[in-house]
């Protein structure tokens, strides 16, 4: 039985909650102890830990580290890090890892993303629930699965991982030096302000840096580019500076969104298709994953370029597991998460940004021209609706469209001749999330309004 305090913060893929109201140092200490037990580092093994720029992050990182060390585990602290930098350190050192971050959530939140050695994901069904159960035992003072020392027994050392991370990314995605790009990057006062300077320094570009000051209060805007209202400043700066491209990163910099030279937001599905096309040049016939809400242009383009497209549910732990099972070289989500086989199957917004810049640098054209070949349909974007009984609404939708092809891979997907929609339940809120795509704007609007009428009646 998991303690209700832990139930409130342990989610499908990570730990997330108000801090310190829900996630405080004591709970984080217990989770560190439980993580050491779950990953087997109690006999002198090592854990790598990073943290973001939120006000509560250094204290929580210390508490987690102390929890690991009381169990006899050693800790390598990499300090300030993006989540993909932590994944790199876990993969490069082949160690379990913990990242203290609440990603794109507002300032009052914090959280913990966990992985096994080699950046292998830990989700609720692959270790996180077991960690929560162990932490419950610790919090309730009713004993542990192994003896706990009253004082830290494991060692602690600080180590720089940023330099090796930047060098590794340049090996993965060389950006041609011939064309000098004008780039605007908006870090949203998040961790891209720490990683972008090191990664971009060797590149032939003119960088306009926006909100690179690390500030966990997010004084300029929330670091959540999935909410396009947070991109307004970037769009304006791209136009003001006549930049070639704009890049926006979320709070922990594992997601990247692109703005073209016209100030328009590029669909993450189009970026998925572009990276897939590039991957199929270097690895002909490769398998590539895409989730249920990416544009149908993505599997079309993968197949046209000679690859194998596999559709997956939404969620990083699910996608990483499927990549490992299928040997896929790349996977993309419409939320702006991009996964790479050569990056320990982990997601990296920075690698996606390098791919787009490399593709642009190989041409004399613009981002809008480059991406036009990957944008074939009209999408609604994700529309959230608060519902009392999501299962009943889903069943009503299924009955409404009973004469059309449907599947339940992730939520409910219904396919018409010239359109499709997917409705999924939120993992954390009483919401249904709707995505619609169609051949034309008018058709998309018609289906969107029709489906919303059923959801909200």
From TrEMBL:
It is an enzyme of class 5 (isomerase). The keyword Nucleotide-binding does not apply. The keyword Phosphoprotein applies. InterPro entries: A-D-PHexomutase_a/b/a-I, A-D-PHexomutase_a/b/a-I/II/III, A-D-PHexomutase_a/b/a-II, A-D-PHexomutase_a/b/a-III, A-D-PHexomutase_C, A-D-PHexomutase_C_sf, Alpha-D-phosphohexomutase_SF. Pfam families: PGM_PMM_I, PGM_PMM_II, PGM_PMM_III, PGM_PMM_IV. CDD domains: PMM_PGM. One of its GO terms (molecular function) is phosphomannomutase activity. Signal peptide: none annotated. Its EC number is 5.4.2.8. Residues 382-453 form the Alpha-D-phosphohexomutase C-terminal domain. Keywords: Isomerase, Magnesium, Metal-binding, Phosphoprotein. Residues 10-136, 164-263, 270-377 form the Alpha-D-phosphohexomutase alpha/beta/alpha domain. Its cofactor is Mg(2+). Belongs to the phosphohexose mutase family. This is Phosphomannomutase. It comes from Aeromicrobium panaciterrae.
């Amino acid at each position: 039985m998991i303690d209700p305090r832990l139930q409130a913060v342990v989610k499908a893929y990570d730990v997330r909650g108000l801090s310190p109201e829900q996630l405080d140092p004591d709970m984080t200490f217990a989770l560190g102890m439980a993580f050491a037990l779950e990953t087997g580092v109690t006999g002198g093994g090592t854990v790598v830990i990073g943290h973001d720029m939120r006000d509560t992050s250094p204290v929580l990182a210390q508490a987690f580290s102390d929890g690991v060390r009381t169990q006899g585990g050693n800790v390598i602290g990499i300090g300030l890090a993006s989540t993909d930098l932590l994944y790199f350190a876990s993969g490069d050192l082949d160690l379990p890892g913990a990242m203290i971050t609440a990603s794109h959530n507002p300032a009052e939140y914090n959280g913990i993303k966990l992985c096994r050695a080699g950046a292998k994901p830990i989700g609720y069904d692959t270790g996180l629930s077991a960690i929560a159960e162990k932490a419950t035992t610790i919090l309730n003072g009713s004993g542990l699965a192994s003896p706990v020392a009253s004082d830290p027994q494991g060692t602690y050392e600080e180590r720089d991982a940023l330099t090796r991370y930047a060098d590794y990314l340049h090996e993965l995605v060389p950006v041609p030096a011939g064309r000098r790009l004008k780039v605007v990057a908006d870090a949203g006062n998040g961790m891209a302000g720490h990683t972008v300077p090191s990664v971009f320094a060797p590149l032939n570009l003119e960088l306009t840096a926006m909100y690179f000051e690390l500030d966990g209060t997010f004084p300029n805007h929330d670091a959540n580019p999935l909410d396009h209202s947070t991109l307004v400043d970037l769009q304006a700066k791209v136009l003001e500076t006549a930049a070639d491209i704009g890049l926006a990163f979320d709070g922990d910099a594992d997601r990247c969104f692109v703005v073209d030279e016209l100030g328009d937001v590029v669909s993450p599905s189009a970026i998925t298709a572009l990276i897939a096309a590039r991957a199929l040049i270097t690895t002909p016939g490769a398998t590539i994953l895409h989730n249920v809400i990416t544009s149908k242009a993505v599997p079309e383009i993968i197949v046209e370029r000679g690859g194998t497209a596999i559709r997956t549910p939404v969620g990083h732990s699910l996608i990483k597991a499927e990549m490992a099972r299928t040997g896929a070289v790349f996977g993309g989500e419409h939320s702006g998460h991009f996964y790479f086989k050569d990056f320990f199957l982990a997601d990296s917004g920075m690698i996606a940004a390098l791919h787009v810049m490399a593709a642009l640098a190989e041409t004399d054209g613009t981002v809008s021209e480059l991406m036009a070949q990957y944008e074939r349909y009209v999408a609604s974007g994700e529309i959230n609706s608060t519902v009392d009984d999501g299962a009943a609404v889903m069943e009503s939708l299924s009955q409404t469209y009973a004469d059309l092809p449907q599947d339940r891979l992730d939520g409910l997907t219904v396919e018409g001749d010239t359109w499709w929609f997917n409705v999924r339940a939120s993992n954390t809120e009483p919401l249904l999330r709707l995505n619609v795509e169609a051949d034309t704007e008018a058709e998309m609007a018609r289906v969107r309004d029709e489906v919303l009428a059923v959801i909200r009646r």
